[in-house]
Design a protein that fits this description.
- The complex is a heterodimer.
- Chain A is built from 10 helices and 12 strands.
- By secondary structure, chain A is of the alpha/beta class.
- Chain A has 2 domains: 19-124, Response regulator (Rossmann fold, 3-Layer(aba) Sandwich), CATH 3.40.50; 132-263, Rossmann fold.
- In chain A, helix 4 (100-108) links the parallel strand 3 and strand 4.
- In chain A, helix 5 (132-147) packs across helix 6 (162-178).
- Chain B has a domain at 41-242: ABC transporter involved in vitamin B12 uptake, BtuC (Orthogonal Bundle), CATH 1.10.3470.10.
- Chain B contains 14 helices and 2 strands.
- In chain B, strands 1-2 form a two-stranded antiparallel sheet.
- In chain B, helix 3 (39-64) packs antiparallel against helix 13 and helix 12 packs parallel to helix 14.
- Classes of the chains: A alpha/beta, B mainly alpha.
- At the A-B interface, helix 2, strand 7, helix 7, helix 8 and helix 9 of A face helix 3, helix 11 and helix 13 of B.
């Protein structure tokens, strides 16, 4: 009986390994380990998929590991990946300040770590990101355009994400410069950002009759805010998001409260990381610690 | 008998969740007199807590048999994803809803079978199904948000017949049905009997395994319904949309326990717990309290209310 259970277990493991995210490449192909805590986030998934596709075209063995928001496990996964000595590790959107253990293990094993939309830190060879300050400035400019340059606005952010924090700081600076009053800064819960933002907006509308706009640090809370505004019938309130997700573009096309989003150029980010790894494989280290790429505003008027 | 002697027992009965709720309502009414008691705000509040009410009622049934279901949030996410994928694929709305509900029932059967017949602890069984379902939702959606759901499906979560949100009407119906099941039927008595003392229930001729399995089926179905409503309300399905419902539903049942003299899960107590959490969230938002402080306060209130209930239970 025990042997039967063992065989079932082995069969399951073999079946699961057949369904893994690793790509089939010839033996000796450069191995690239992608690790992320945020694969459930649409933008993270998008850029990781793009990077994986580029890597496969270049003949790399790419594996993707997600820890569903667990940074402790992320450290473990980086340590474990480093012990296998891949050609490079790619950290997709995790805060590197929480990953000192994993990054140290990578350094000890001489495995370079490249980051996508994370941050500069010891142990990160280079971070390639959208210019979050640029995203913040452009999204704030879009909201200012939507509200006519004056009035009260609210900001929806999520400080634990360094990129989101950076774009919120840049947006805030734009609002302050324009003389717009930021009546409140709300923390959007993750998971559940759409429903969370919807509830926050409903409560906010009750206490802020003169609200003219909501700036959301990414598209999902912007969608929740849009739905609450539409339900409350306060269609004069404008919403902007960041990311350029498909659902955001669909909302913008409806000409409702969702006024604009700033699309991050994930194709360019994925390509840049792949190019840096290609250079690294040829023995050429990155010349910069960070590469910041601009975003593109997609507004009702564009 | 003095007036004071009559008031004290009444106050004692009011301790825990009911007293806490009254205190919160009084506090927010004083601090936000024009906004908090406004009918529009109260209507929003009811709409906010509707989905949680459904999940918490389902969780109450499982907790009545002295188990709990960690997979309710993941089941809600999964059912929303199933329905959305089928709708986007062109299935009729009724068929997509039926398929999502069936998925919830199947998940409940699996959980119940693992707990009741395979004798896994509810913690391990539902933790495992929660993890598997989270992976399943991500796999089905490719990690993305599904949108573009048909208008007739959106009616489920967004329509307001006679000005009352449909989600609120559904939550009231679910609450009433669950209350009736738990309090007025032989099955309800069996659930409570198994939760009170499974061994004694066995000697009394109750099929404990079947009773526990049925509780998980109710939980799975309730969570699936909540997921459908959530997707309809948000006009989209996200693979983690229902996840926050798990902890808050368990918290609501625990807070509700403080309202019951018998210290066993009841639908009335659970709904009180949901209202306490909803009022707290709504009031602190209206006061623009720092969201991190809100989380601390919510945790403190759960500890204080359950602690008060314990003390009251120990009193001779």
């Amino acid at each position: 009986m025990r042997m039967r259970h063992l065989s079932i277990a082995v069969a399951l493991v073999l079946a699961a390994s057949g369904c893994g995210s690793g790509t089939a490449q010839p033996p000796g192909a450069p191995a690239i380990s992608v690790v992320t805590p945020y694969l459930a986030n649409a933008a993270t998934k998008d850029v990781v998929d793009k990077f994986t596709a580029i890597g496969e075209r270049r003949g790399w063995q790419v594996t993707v590991t997600d820890t569903a928001g667990d940074f402790s496990m992320l450290n473990d996964k980086i340590q474990s990946a480093a012990s296998r000595r891949p050609s490079a590790i790619v950290l997709a959107m995790g805060d590197p300040t929480q990953l000192t253990l994993g990054l140290k293990a990578a350094g000890d094993n001489k495995v370079p770590v490249f980051a996508i939309d994370a941050a500069q830190a010891d142990g990160i060879a280079a971070n390639v990101t959208s210019d979050n300050a640029d995203l913040g400035r452009k999204s704030a400019a879009a909201l200012l355009e939507a509200i006519g340059g004056s009035g009260n606005v609210a900001m929806f952010g999520h400080d634990p994400h360094p990129g989101v924090r950076a774009r919120a700081a840049a947006a805030r600076a734009e609002f302050d410069k324009a003389g717009v009053t930021v009546v409140t800064v709300k923390h959007v819960p993750v998971p559940g950002p759409v429903e969370g933002a919807r509830k926050l907006t409903t409560d906010l509308l009750a206490v802020t009759p003169d609200l003219k706009g909501i700036w959301a640090a990414w598209d999902e809370p912007a969608l929740g805010a849009t739905q609450a505004i539409r339900q409350a019938g306060r269609m004069g309130i404008a919403v902007v998001g960041v990311d350029g997700q498909d659902f955001a573009l669909a909302e913008i096309q409806k000409a409702g409260p969702f006024y604009a989003t700033v699309k991050q150029d994930w194709d360019a980010v994925a390509l840049k990381v792949a190019d840096l790894i290609t250079d690294q494989l040829a023995g050429k280290a990155p010349t910069q610690r960070e590469y910041a790429l601009p975003g593109t505003t997609i507004a009702r008027t564009t | 008998m003095t007036a004071g002697a009559g008031v004290r027992p009444a106050l004692r009965r009011l301790s825990g969740a009911p007293l806490g709720l009254l205190a919160l309502i009084a506090l927010f009414t004083i601090l936000r007199p024009t906004v908090f008691p406004d009918p529009g705000n109260l209507s929003n509040l009811l709409e906010h807590i509707a989905v949680l009410t459904i999940v918490a009622c389902a969780q109450t049934v499982v907790m009545a048999v002295a188990d709990f279901d960690l997979s309710v949030g993941a089941t809600a996410s999964f059912s929303g994803v199933i329905a959305a994928q089928l709708l986007v694929a062109g299935w009729p709305t009724v068929a997509a809803i039926a398929a999502a509900m069936a998925a919830g029932v199947v998940i409940g059967v699996v959980n119940g079978w693992l707990v009741a017949y395979l004798k896994l602890s509810a913690f391990v069984a539902t933790l495992a199904s929660m993890t598997a379902l989270a992976g399943g939702s991500l796999l089905l959606t490719d990690g993305s948000t599904i949108f573009g759901l048909p208008d007739d499906f959106l009616l489920l979560g967004q329509s307001r017949p006679l000005g009352i949100p449909t989600v609120v009407l559904i939550a009231i119906t679910v609450g009433a049905v669950t209350w009736f099941l738990l309090s007025r039927t032989a099955q309800g008595r069996r659930w409570h009997a198994v939760g009170g003392n499974a061994e004694a229930a066995t000697y009394a001729g109750i099929d404990v395994g079947r009773t526990r399995l049925l509780a998980f089926v109710v939980s799975g179905a309730g969570a699936a319904l909540a997921g459908l409503l959530l997707s309809s309300r948000l006009a989209s399905a996200h693979p983690t949309a229902g996840d926050p419902l798990m902890l808050t539903s368990i918290a609501a049942v625990f807070i509700g326990l403080t309202a019951a003299q018998a210290a066993r899960p009841s639908v009335a107590g659970t709904i009180l717990g949901v209202v306490v959490l909803g009022v707290l969230d709504n009031g602190l938002n209206l006061l623009d309290v720092n969201p991190y402080v809100q989380q601390i306060l919510t945790g403190l209130i759960i500890v204080v209310s359950v602690g008060l209930s314990r003390r009251r239970g120990e009193r001779p």
